[in-house]
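Hi R.,

As promised, here are both runs. First protein below:
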Amino acid sequence: MLPTPSTTHIDPSLIYPPAEDSYLLLDTLSSASEIQFLHSRFHPTSPHPHPHPTSLPPPPPPDPPSPTHNPAKPSTSPLVVELGTGSGIILAFLTAHAPTLFGRPDILTLGLDINPEACIATVKTVERACADVRSQITRNEDGDGDEDAGVEGGEGGEEGYFIGSVNGDLCGSLKEGEVDMLVFNPPYVPTPSVPSIPNPADSAPGSKPKHQAASTAVAPAGEEEPEDLLAFSYAGGVHGMEVTNRLLAQLPLVLRRGKGVAYVVLCRQNRPEEVVERVRGWGGDGDGGWRCEVVGRSGRFGGWEKLVVVRIWRGERF
């Protein structure tokens, strides 16, 4: 079992703390089946110095190379983006354990959140998680570590490369076709409405607004009330799907062609079976079509918040 990043430093009055949905994502992304999928999806085209974890089944071989494929050239380092990082626990987990989860340490990770306090917390969570993993690896090498800690690393305790945490709304800060893996634990609770996205230009009377799409507007730090900041993390509007629907509309644009994959959390009120069918109807045939499957479940035996994690991806030859 891979260690869970610490979030003891966050202020729960300002930032959504880890909860059942967070841990469901962690369990799903670190399951043997999803690790095997990610190893296969992002397998480098040339041998990588970091070995695959011996406790997991070996990933399937990569797809046959195309006629123009250069076998001597390694694949581009995958970009992993989490939207709505909150405490940063998911992004920290993906960064600190990149060699185990992806079969390679050259993973670039980036976080985005509309809450500026969450952006600050995410940086601290990622830094602490990576430091903890390096410390555990050092203790293991010295013979003083816990053999059951589940930490593995390559030479020097390699982990992913954390780019940073951006204060922004959904995919507005991302370039088209650049994201290899996107993770989103959205505000999925059904509410009468969703919070409006504040625009810094609105707070300067008489000033000329900057040329900025609504989807990229950001909230200036310190100007939102705590309850407003937290509302961004849970209020999902009608059927809890208003924010998620916006993300789904952007996915075909931001995911990398032929390789991109997304993991999204849904609750029962979001009608996940309808989401699965909608994504499958996006287009493409055979190996190049859009695919969507439930790969993680929680709350099967009680409680209103029955959660699932859906994986959205498209065929290798899309």
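And here is the second one, sequence first, then its structure tokens:
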Amino acid sequence: MYYPNLKLYTGHDGPGKRKGPRDAAFAFLYRFGKRTATGLIVYTLSFLPLVGRFVLPAASCYTFNKAAGPIPAAIVFGSGLFLPKRYLVVFLQSYFSSRSLMRELLEPYFQRIKFTSEQKRRWFRDREGLLFGFGIGFYSFLKIPLLGVLIYGIAEASTAYLVTKITDPPPPPAHSKGFAETQVKWQNKMQFLNLPLMSLDAYNIPAPSSSQNPLVSTTGTSEKKSL
């Protein structure tokens, strides 16, 4: 279970280790400033003669390849050669905005379970496709006037549920050393993605010694015990 142990974790590591407002503001400005500068450079290059028409489709393909794989990325690239430039700009804006939304929704988890910057980068990279699909849906609904405020609350609750499916339950804080490193790789990735939609609770990360197939019903085992 997540809650009994997770509630024992504080939002910081102790006195002197909590990020101050100045550091947090600097990190925010650096992250979004870097993204804005990259976007402006790509958009400016799209006006170059001859090669300019390939810049935005190539940027969209490269970006989407990390989240969805080469085949969808190739479709995006091919479509981008014929679609007006504004559609590609909207696509890229939606992609990066959904990523920012997911980082914001997952911040309560990362405030308690301490990851280094490199560990967090690998954590997101291993789950990038799922997080993109999850985030883009809520991002679309958040743009609806009035309703978007209510949707954000649903997004927070849904993210808490999602975390229980893509990570291990945390150990007690006294035994948490090295736990973050074990969560970088999504251990039950293929098993979870192959589950039917109505059976998402049938599987979570088992103990390391367990070899039980989550797709096999436990009815037979119960019948054997009753005999």
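A quick note on the second one: The first helix runs from residue 3 to 6. Let me know what you think.

Best,
J.
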